[in-house]
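Submission checklist for the structure archive. All mandatory fields must be present; incomplete records are returned to the submitter.

[x] Identifier: Type II secretion system F family protein
[x] Organism: Vreelandella aquamarina
[x] Residue count: 408
[x] Sequence attached
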Amino acid sequence: MPRHLQKARTRRLYRWKWTATGPASQPLDGESIGHSKADIIAELSRQNIHVRRIRKIGGARSQSAISSGDIMLFSRQMATMVQSGVPLLQSLSVVAESFKKPAMRVLVKALAQDVASGTSFSQALRRYPQHFDSLFIHLVAAGEQSGTLASMLERNAVHKEKVESLRARVKKALWYPACVLMAGIGITLLLLVKVVPQFEGMFRSFGAELPALTQLIVELSTLAQQLWLPFVVSTLLAILLFRWASQRAAPLAYRRDSALLQLPVIGNILDKAAVARFTRTLATMFASGVPLVEGLETAAGTTGNRVYEQAVRQIRQDVAAGHPLHLSMKMTNRFPLLTIQMVSIGEEAGALATMLRRVAEYHEQEVDNAVDALTSLMEPLIIIILGVLVGGIVTAMYLPIFDLGTVI
């Protein structure tokens, strides 16, 4: 890369807010990202926009803020632009301006600078491995070599959309029960800390022995008033500590993912989702001409589960040693029999990519059905849980009043 471009990349980018006049003296205002005020004014002048006032409003956020959803959107926009016949460099410039998130605008503009300097699109993507996986890079490289960049970008966009849709369904399956549990605990703590003490003073004036259930709730209320803050803080710290440790300790992350797969209902959803991600990624790689061993290396990182990731890496070693794919999958004891049989048929018929894609679609549909079933199951369960918690506490509080009415 030329030295002046290297220096440009190291310069810090800032967000600038400006007001200007456009063609026919039309008033305009907006925000731009650039290295200096002069760069922003020059860029806007090329668009026949004359800046009247401009001020710096802060630094552009770091690229760590970029999510997989942002990359999916970038992939779809680039596929649409290139398919429409727009040149690559112009497509990158237009897509960069379409993003509202500063981090994405910085990233796409950096890609445009690389392409403008003579670097191929795939090589520019390789400089940002934290955002662009090997699948994206391989597809773009294959498209550049074969002159089918538009179709390869479209294939990648479809793949990203399918994966993101599946990830959203899995997140829904995980968060829904967690939210129900947290809501139940929160309501119970609120009643014990704020409501029960109001009744406790009234009970003391009775001077009579409280029913066993009421006495238990009063004692729990006393305990909750003393320990609710340490309980909440320690729970949050434990969750954050476990998350931090699992990100840095591979054995702990493996045990966590293994435990999640053993959960009823949730484990089944995670199991099918991992198989779907693996087969869809491998199908896309293989159909694009990527060697099977290399495709397995990429697919291992897209399963979303350390147990399956380790299994796929073992499959890669076995395939590299000369074993058929379906036999290597069978030896891991992780993949369903139907999946192994369909892969075997695909290998024998020379249609492995097609069979892998059908397996992915089948398991994605299974995930959708399982999530819908879980949602339907959770709705009455929410009513039961909240009814038992709230109803139990309310009943315990009114039992002494009922007993007093009986005595009177």
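[x] Structure attached
Curator remark: Residues 149-206 form the longest helix (58 residues). The radius of gyration is 29 Å.
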